[in-house]
Amino acid sequence: KLDKLRFSTREESQAETFRKMRLAMARDVRVILIKLADRLHNMRTMEAMTPAKRVRIAGETLEIYAPIAHRLGLNQTYRELQELSFRHLRPWRHAALSKAVQKARGYRRDLVERIQRDVEKAFVQAKLPVQVYGREKTLFSIYKKMSEKHLSFAQVNDIFGFRIVVGTLMECYMAMGVLHQLFKPMPGRFKDYIAIPKGNGYQSLHTTLVSPLGTAVEFQIRTEQMHAVAEKGIAAHWMYKAKGAGANAQDAQRLGAMWLQSLLDIQDETRDASEFLEHVKIDLFPDSIYVFTPKSKILALPRGATPVDFAYAIHSDVGDHCVAAKVNGEPVALRTELHSGDVVEIVSAPNARPNPAWLNFVRTGRARSKIRHYLKTMEQEESQDLGEKMLAQALRAEGLQLPDERDENAALWQQVTRWSGNRNRAELLTDIGLGRKIASIVAKRVARLLAEDGQRPDALTLTLGRYASDENAPLQGMVQIDGSEGASVQLAPCCRPIPGDAIVGYLGRGEGLTVHTADCSVGKRLFERDSERWMTVEWAEQPVRPFETGITILLKNGKGVLAEVASAVASAEADITHIDMGDERAAQTSELRLLLSVRDRLHLAEVMRTLKRQPSVLRVARVKP
User: For the chain, which domains are there?
Assistant: First the structure.
């Protein structure tokens, strides 16, 4: 049972509890309805608990359970959970606001009654049967508005509003016309949630009008079916089924089921319970924007969403291969914030892959979990490929070739993985690629097992294997660097090797392979400390991308020297990726530090020769640790 497991922190336990609850409610949504009802009962009966426990439960309710209720359209439950949480978390502020609202009811009663009389009279004259209800903002929503907008209570002028309930959808728009004739509408304060429902199925027309005394009053207009869904959400499917509120209630149930399915998708791609809860919290947002695909399909996204969120909302493949975006026909950066009404187009490329930097700006839990899952999968695949090359290289020194996965080698790999503590061959190779296992030690174990089986090579074969010609050496397992290795192979930032440099590889524990130049002082210190983690690597004949390296330039101070340097670098067909210049304006000379993107060592030499020919340049040197 879950409550018998031990967790290192209460947060971890809470995350695992929520994860298990999500698994149950994905199978039957009534599970979450029962859970929310249970939580509501607990919140109503917390007076006997200690203050610390009340605060903990109220915080958990406000952070997780209330947003879930809102996400499923259970607005009545949502509001009560918020109110009860607010009362226990901020008792003094709750009491002060409650007193202020009671006073406001007294001196605003006449205004509210006058507006209601005028509205009811206008609808009678229009021969439009409606029900007019007064409504009041909850204390928590007032507190939230005051906090977010830095307002005093006196400045919150929309505490009271009205709800108009009509018979049919067409009458919603007719009722809005009657209200706009009666009172002046405020510009930019009309929202049509009937044409574009909220993500939880909520539908209404919202319009804010100027009252006879000049204050803003919000009206919500909806049908009886819409009202049922607005209050009961996904539960309306059962509660109002017999009354014929089918269409709207079924929409609410469908949207709720879609959200629960999105949680399943996040669950499938998230191993850690705390990470799963983090992703779900991101998706428990009340505020949405509505954007369009080029084919006019509407997508709801959280406020602050970017084109990357949009791409993953369409399909994970679109997000994974996204390279650029256009908003309203104009190219924009992928981190650009989208707004309601934007038409978004995604440009993709088959060889593109998610960028880890996207995690700094995406807003949806779906996008975040998909990106992390892809990066973890790619890291594992790259590490497995690297581990295979490293083990093959170590076995070649033993005069052996790497046994493949054919059936005749199954018993061998079973023995090796049992010895290494891995579940299978792929996991062992991944561990080697990540530096968790030493390739040479594994190779010796494989050689020993083969020898016991009578497959150990003789002395002549072993010698030939160790001193194979360069032509044959790369045939199996030589680790070659071409720039496409990804996260499993990193170029050391201390020496920044480029093709043409003599290089060596250092296998950090759990960090993959780091490539250093052979004369790197940092690399030499690592070798002295842990020599068995070093391995031979080489450059591929045709690297697939440019590489960065650093140079320093000593130049005469003068007007236009930076432009002169940049022009010289460009003429040598290289790019400057970073520039750093000391504040030496008073001196006759200054030192400039550049990061250059070059093809190889020969290209770098050409760039440096071009720079040395410039009149203002006194000295050029490559940066070395």
Answer: 378-479 (no CATH), 547-622 (3.30.70.260)
